[in-house]
Design a protein that fits this description.
The chain has helices at residues 2-29, 32-49, 53-69, 74-100, 103-123, 132-135, 137-141, 202-220, 222-226, 255-265, 272-280, 289-301, 307-314, 319-343, 373-376, 390-395; strands at residues 129-131, 162-165, 168-171, 179-185, 190-197, 236-240, 243-247, 252-254, 353-356, 362-364. By secondary structure, the chain is α+β, with helices and mostly antiparallel strands. Strands 1, 2, 3, 4, 5, 6 and 7 form a seven-stranded antiparallel sheet that branches. Strand 3 (168-171) and strand 4 form a beta hairpin. Pfam families: FRB_dom, PI3_PI4_kinase. Keywords: ATP-binding, Kinase, Nucleotide-binding, Repeat, Transferase. This is non-specific serine/threonine protein kinase.
């Protein structure tokens, strides 16, 4: 607060605009529908799973306080009209229970909460796009602001300010339903971001700072500079403890999406390796370690595992382009394996590895599991220092 007060003394307009944009982006990142869906799920887990009654009330209180402040957008008004009555009635039953201790009253509250939860669950998959007119009219009205486009500020360079925010946002179909946001800069260029809710991006931001340090070291050495070993970074801007912006990396796809599309095109089952393993042994989870290894090796022997190598080749317009991409692929994979090991980076499944289809570089995303937490976890700890599976090896053509 003291820092903001000092900043307001010389840049009042800048601070006011920054706070408004931040608040509105947080509002768009997590709608009331999603806040209640997540909150009711957590409250249910605490009460029915852990019998933690006080934890349940602590989870529900801020949700009802949010409703009491009243809706500010059309989307919030429609939520209030659809669910407000049931939620207010549920709150009343909760208050009665707190006064009387009669469990029947709490059960009546949960009947209403569950009814609301089911209705929200049915509507969330239909959330494929958002119009700023209904979710954040204040953002829609933004024109020619004084604040820089997130992630674009560079000391010594002209400041690219926010000119306007695109009126429509695409909602991606993944679990957390991130939004694809486009901001027009004062230079006329469009900056695309992934607006993520339900996720703390502060650690990802620190990882990007580490990558910047690694790049400085790699550029300062003539040998590593000549080999173009720098890590491809992207902007990460945390807005709160559970939302933030991630710079959209163009021409990129996850390895999972690339391999899925390749196999669909070639009429190959996406999980062919797993199917072969199940044909050999249906009760995989109950086998001994050596039996599991035998079944796994059987699946490897009966599949090529060259999907990534082949799509790198077929997507290249010439052998020269392919050679450059393959070289960049191998080098970026090596650098990130080394840096990932130093960082203790886990959870490197194919949806967390991206391929830049123009340069061939491997780009890592989602840095939630750092400092060897994946190795230390109780269930299914990871044993490997970094991911180097046969598909990744085959793509290096070694």
């Amino acid at each position: 607060e003291k820092i903001l007060k000092n900043m307001r003394e010389h840049s009042a307009n800048l601070v006011q605009q920054a706070m408004m944009v931040s608040e509105e982006l947080i509002r768009v990142a997590i709608l009331w529908h999603e806040t209640w869906h997540e909150g009711l799920e957590e409250a249910s887990r605490l009460y029915f799973g852990e019998r933690n009654e006080s934890g349940m009330f602590r989870t529900l209180e801020p949700l009802h306080a949010m409703m009491a402040r009243g809706p500010q957008t059309l989307k919030e008004m429609s939520f209030n009209q659809a669910y407000g009555r049931d939620l207010n009635e549920a709150l009343e039953w909760c208050r009665r229970y707190q006064r009387s201790g009669n469990v029947r009253e709490l059960n009546l509250a949960w009947d209403l909460y569950y009814h609301v939860f089911r209705r929200i669950s049915r509507t969330l998959p239909q959330l494929t796009s958002l119009e700023l007119q209904s979710v954040s009219p204040r953002l829609l009205k933004c024109r020619d602001l004084d604040i820089a486009v997130p992630g674009s500020y560079s000391p010594g360079s002209p400041v690219i300010c926010i000119s306007q925010v695109q009126s429509s946002l695409q909602v991606l179909t993944s679990k957390q339903r991130p939004r694809k946001l486009c901001i027009r800069g004062s230079n006329g260029r469009d900056f695309v971001f992934l607006l993520k809710g339900h996720e703390d991006l502060r650690q990802d931001e620190r990882v990007m700072q580490l990558f910047g340090l690694v790049n400085t070291l790699l550029i300062s050495n003539p040998d590593t500079f000549r080999r173009n070993l720098t890590i491809q970074r992207f902007a990460v801007i945390p807005l709160s403890t559970n939302s933030g912006l991630i710079g959209w990396v163009p021409h990129c796809d996850t390895l999972h999406a690339l391999i899925r599309d390749w196999r669909e095109k070639k009429k190959i089952l996406l999980n062919i390796e797993h199917r072969i393993m199940l044909r050999m042994a249906q009760d995989l989870d109950h086998l001994t370690l050596m039996q599991k290894v035998e079944v796994f090796e059987h699946a490897l022997e009966h599949t090529q595992g060259d999907d990534l190598a082949r799509l790198l080749w077929f997507k290249s317009p010439s052998s020269e382009v392919w050679f450059d991409r393959r070289t960049n692929y191998s080098r970026s994979l090596a650098v990130m394996s080394m840096v990932g090991y130093v960082l203790g980076l886990g959870d490197r499944h194919p949806s967390n590895l991206m391929l830049d289809q123009l340069s061939g570089k491997i780009i890592h995303i989602d840095f939630g599991d750092c400092f060897e937490v994946a190795m230390m976890r109780e269930k299914f700890p990871e044993k490997i220092p970094f991911r180097l599976t046969r598909m990744l090896i085959h793509a290096m053509e070694v």
